[in-house]
Write a structure and sequence with these properties.
Layout lengths: L1 H21 L6 H9 L9 H11 L3 E4 L5 E8 L2 E8 L10 E7 L11 E5 L5 E7 L2 E6 L2 E7 L17 E7 L5 E7 L4 E6 L9 E3 L6 E4 L5 E4 L6 E7 H5 L20 H9 L26 E3 L6 H7 L22
Parallel strand pairs: 1-8, 15-16
Antiparallel strand pairs: 2-3, 3-4, 4-5, 6-7, 7-8, 9-10, 10-11, 12-13, 13-14, 14-15
């Protein structure tokens, strides 16, 4: 009997431990206020000092989930919130380069502040070492952190997620935590971000008030159209307010599948969809002139869900040529990011 009680209690303890481990972490207002009110003598304009501080605050090993290889962070400095990122770009990390940027974070009443940016290298005392295809160490002033990039090389959309003639360009892991398949339609010369539902979608998708063919993320504000031809959801909108303050929900345009771009498919798709870019961009879509990156943003920025109704009206228009159906879900145009 006593042994039975011990086993029973052990099971209870194990269940409670597992429950506690899987329960959500909380962030408190107390933590926010204490961080906000903390005095700091760090020279915010000294990029080396800020970079050293960020590395010192990170664990020995971190996992970079977004597919353009940005490791995002935020911190408070004397009452001001700063946002920034460390980026091991696919285009130049093997040259021993790392991009580092931070700036006063935007809010509803004010755009983001002046950018502090530097491409760091051995000349700055920063040592970049390639440990494997998707693992790099960054060392600076005696501190080394390993950055493991997200290996999505096995991610491919099921055949029933692609329309006839569509070309799969690669996986997209957005900083919002939502994953997509980036696809290109060479017949219509348009791009789509198709929701990857083979992975957990960390959001609640709520039907729009006027049609259940449009669903909107309760957390992200991402709006999707339920394709009437295939079992898939196509991104059609992001909240303009999120774009304005440059937060994690500003859309997947800045998370292209760089680590898996081993040929010129992306470049050829961009040049075909927008002939004005021919000869001006590299295989990642960067302008050779250095002005930025071509924007693949075939979705709209909306403020009210009623603004999305035109996607549905187009898709259900009885006079629409059937061959143009998927053009209903792409906003034309692009340019430098």
């Amino acid at each position: 009997m006593a042994l039975g009680l011990i086993v029973s209690q052990s099971n209870i303890d194990a269940a409670q431990a597992q429950s506690a481990h899987s329960a959500p972490k909380i962030a408190t207002n107390q933590q926010f206020l204490e961080n906000l009110g903390m005095d700091s003598s760090m020279d915010i304009n000294n990029i080396g000092a800020v970079f050293g501080h960020i590395l010192s605050e990170l664990p020995d090993r971190v996992h970079v989930l977004p597919t353009e290889n940005y490791y995002y962070f935020r911190f408070f400095q004397n009452g001001v919130e700063y946002a920034g990122n460390i980026r091991l770009a696919a285009s130049d990390r093997d040259e021993g380069l790392v991009h580092f940027a931070y700036f006063p974070a935007a809010n509803a009443g004010r755009p983001e502040g002046e950018m502090n940016y530097k491409l760091l290298s051995a000349d700055d005392g920063v040592a970049i070492a390639r440990l494997s295809d998707l693992s790099y160490s960054i060392g600076y002033q005696g501190r080394t952190v390993v950055f493991d990039l997200n290996d999505l090389s096995d991610v491919t959309p099921p055949a029933d997620k692609l329309a006839d003639a569509e070309l799969y360009l690669g996986p997209v892991y957005d900083e919002s935590g939502i994953q997509f398949y980036l696809v290109y339609n060479p017949l219509l010369k348009i791009f789509h971000y198709v929701l990857n539902e083979a992975q957990t979608v960390p959001d609640q998708l709520i039907p729009a008030s006027y049609t259940d063919r449009i669903v909107i993320g309760r957390r992200s504000g991402f709006a999707f159209y339920l394709d009437a031809r295939l079992d898939r959801k196509i991104l059609i909108g992001v909240l303009g307010a999120n774009v304005a303050i440059n937060n994690y929900y500003d859309g997947p345009f800045d998370q292209l599948p760089d680590n898996f771009n081993h040929d010129k498919k992306l470049q050829m798709a961009i040049e075909e969809s927008d002939p004005s870019t021919a000869g001006l961009i590299d295989r990642f879509g960067y302008y050779k002139s250095g002005i930025g990156r071509y924007l693949i943003g075939p979705y709209t920025q909306y403020s009210k869900e009623q603004e999305l109704v035109n996607f549905h009206l187009c898709a259900t228009n009885p006079e629409l040529d059937e061959s143009l159906y998927y053009s209903c879900f792409a906003i034309q145009g692009g340019g430098g990011t």
